[in-house]
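Lecture notes, part 5. Sequence design as translation. It can be helpful to think of inverse folding as translation between two languages: the language of shapes and the language of residues. The source text, in structure tokens, appears below.
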């Protein structure tokens, strides 16, 4: 144990503030146990699991007020697999990618596949952001909604260009940020952040134009590995199945979280709650002499991943180490960013009161370390 013990009455009730995987609520675990005998350890081709998949799809459709013709797709492999699936099955000739952090960069890399033209990559420095913009020859536009590696968030807006698709990586935004999905053709995510589940699955809200593109490319002679074929995802999702075996616990945790979100008031509730928690962190950073919000433009500050730079006199690694020993975990910066920073997940499961306790704990630790 470190020499610094944070008083129990100062500690958050739940010390998990990671940017993903992130806080799983107790009720989700209780639901998982309750479902144990009917779902876990049973066939994913039989009604109990298919019903669970259908429930996840219905709840997502309700949460996002899904426009007519949009479908909820899912498959294995997380958002990383979706990037490759998109390169194989959604980009016709050339993609444009907005890159303002690691995850946007990973999509740009996937879109640099040899059967496509080199992507049009629009880059901004970490801590800022850049929008998509109509460009000659581009048939698919892609951006993260929330860049988890830096804590920059952009509005979801369709690029108005006849025949082109706009796809949004919502891995860390989904379930925590309100959005009008008519502003895009694919809103895709994995469920290990706001949605309080485990990784390994991707889900996508797909427009009729996206489905049409998937089917059109699927019917050409382009080689596509079976597990990455979006046509398989469409066919199987319509039957409430996945091509290969899904993680049943992931589906159960996800369904529980979607049910809770619905009971609490859906995306309106989620949006207000994540704004409140992240607001606590940003307000604290603004008024603290040795802390500064990393994203300079308040309009680009994420409401679900709050990044705060620390003055060089403060040893961020020592602060996070002491917090970890006291049960407050995972507020380290994104590893490749290499900054003296705290990155705090303020996803919807985080209680805003715990965000208040967290900043008090950080103050407590910094004061003690200085003694
Ligand atoms: C914005 C964003 N996109 C994509 C990913 C990759 O997701 P997965 O690990 O499910 O492949 C992450 C993971 O943190 C992310 O934050």
């Amino acid at each position: 144990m470190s020499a610094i013990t944070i008083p129990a009455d100062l500690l958050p009730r739940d010390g998990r503030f990671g940017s993903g995987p992130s806080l799983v609520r107790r009720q989700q675990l209780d639901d998982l146990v309750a479902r144990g005998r009917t779902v876990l350890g049973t066939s994913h081709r039989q009604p109990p699991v298919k019903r669970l998949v259908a429930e996840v799809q219905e709840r997502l459709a309700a949460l996002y007020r899904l426009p007519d013709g949009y479908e909820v797709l899912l498959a294995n492999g997380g958002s990383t697999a979706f990037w490759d699936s998109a390169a194989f099955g959604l980009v016709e000739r050339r993609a444009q990618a907005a890159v303002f952090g690691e995850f946007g960069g990973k999509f740009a890399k996937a879109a640099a596949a040899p059967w496509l033209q080199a992507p049009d990559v629009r880059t901004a420095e970490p801590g800022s952001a850049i929008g998509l913009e109509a460009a000659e020859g581009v048939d698919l536009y892609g951006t993260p909604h929330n860049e988890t590696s830096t804590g920059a968030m952009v509005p979801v807006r369709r690029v108005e260009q006849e025949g082109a698709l706009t796809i949004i990586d919502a891995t860390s935004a989904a379930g925590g940020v309100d959005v009008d999905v008519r502003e895009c053709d694919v809103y895709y995510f994995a469920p290990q952040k706001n949605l309080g589940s485990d990784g390994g699955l991707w889900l996508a809200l797909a427009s009729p134009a996206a489905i049409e593109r998937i089917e059109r490319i699927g019917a050409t002679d382009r080689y596509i590995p079976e597990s990455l074929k979006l046509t398989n995802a469409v066919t199987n999702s319509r039957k409430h199945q996945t091509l290969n075996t899904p993680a049943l616990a992931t589906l159960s945790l996800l369904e529980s979280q979607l049910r809770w979100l619905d009971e609490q008031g859906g995306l309106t509730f989620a949006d207000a709650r994540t704004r409140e928690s992240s607001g606590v962190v940003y307000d604290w950073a603004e008024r603290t002499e040795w802390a500064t919000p990393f994203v300079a433009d308040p309009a680009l500050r994420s409401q679900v991943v709050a990044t705060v730079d620390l003055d060089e006199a403060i040893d961020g690694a020592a602060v996070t180490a002491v917090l970890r020993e006291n049960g407050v975990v995972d507020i380290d910066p994104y590893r490749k960013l290499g900054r003296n920073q705290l990155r705090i997940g303020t996803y919807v499961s985080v209680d805003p009161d715990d965000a208040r306790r967290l900043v008090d704990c950080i103050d407590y630790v910094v004061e003690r370390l200085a003694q």
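The translated text above is only one of many valid answers, since several sequences can fold into similar shapes. The chain has a mean pLDDT of 97.
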